[in-house]
Write a structure and sequence with these properties.
Elements: H1 3-41, E1 46-49, E2 53-59, E3 65-71, E4 95-98, E5 104-110, E6 119-126, E7 140-148, E8 162-170, E9 175-178, E10 181-185, E11 188-193, E12 195-202, E13 209-215, E14 220-226, H2 247-264
Length: 265
């Protein structure tokens, strides 16, 4: 073999071997930091109550995205994304987490309201989209998380005994009394114990307004009303009547008439 060609082949072989070693070391490094990150969050096994938020984090230097999925009770054997357990990684669904420029990634897994059952789940963090059955040659790490149901408790809520009375009466500034007690002017909003009350609204120049209302717990009772103006008296048309003479005037007239008759005789 030509010495020059042999030397070239040896150099290419050496370069290929070095590239393979570098790639292998890169994968080992990523796997190591992924494992370190997941263990810090609970890689040895974590317990949580269904509905709680479980923080997951790790490192993946040189990567842009980390793909998370899980296996567990009543989930697809190929894995399901953490945020949508009814979907499958086999259909290309993952919980994708962006890797920051620092090489760190973080994800807060909300376990409530997504249909998870109580039990133990295995969470996978992979540097490329893979299924559980297709992890050969991939860089990934796993951690187990046990989700349990919360203990059943019964706490009696305090009984609500107050409601709200809201009075809007025009004209504004009208005086408002509740069961004879002055509460303020319109518009008015006040809290009252549940029960029945008489509300009286007055304003100068307007007819009073009364109403009996019932206040219910944790409810608002509304009064919306416009007061009726009191009409002003109007003078009657026509000629004023002649005032009636008083008694002494009639008596005097009679005496004068009597004297006049006597003198004529």
């Amino acid at each position: 073999m030509d010495p020059v060609l042999s030397c070239t082949l040896n150099e290419e072989k050496k370069h290929y071997q070095e590239s393979a070693i570098v790639d292998l070391m890169h994968r080992i490094l990523i796997a190591t930091v992924l494992i370190a990150g997941m263990l810090a969050t609970g890689g040895t096994g974590l317990e949580a109550v269904l509905g709680e938020t479980v923080p997951l984090s790790g490192s993946a230097p040189g990567e842009r995205t980390v793909y998370l999925f899980m296996t567990g009770p009543n989930l697809d054997p190929d894995g399901a994304p953490l945020h949508a357990p009814t979907r499958s990684t086999a259909a290309g669904h993952y919980t994708e987490v962006r890797v920051l420029s620092s090489g760190r990634w973080e994800y807060k897994w909300n376990t409530g309201g997504i249909g998870l059952d109580a039990g133990t789940y295995t969470v996978y963090a992979v540097t490329e989209p893979r299924t559980r059955r297709d992890l050969r040659g991939a860089t990934y790490v796993t951690t187990t998380i046990t989700l349990r149901r919360a203990a059943l408790t019964l706490e009696e809520e305090p009984r609500r005994t107050h409601g709200l009375l809201k009075v809007t009466v025009e004209p504004f500034g009208a005086l408002i009394e509740v069961d004879g007690r002055f509460y303020g002017t319109s518009p008015l909003e006040t809290a009252l114990s549940a029960g029945t009350y008489e509300v009286r609204v007055t304003h100068e120049g307007y007819a009073p307004y009364r109403r009996v209302v019932t206040i219910f717990p944790d409810a608002t009772t509304l009064i919306e009303q416009s007061l009726e103006p009191i009409p002003s008296p109007t003078p009657k048309d026509g000629v004023p009547q002649t005032p009636v003479a008083s008694g002494w005037t009639l008596a005097l007239a009679g005496a004068v008439f009597y004297i006049f008759i006597r003198l004529r005789k």
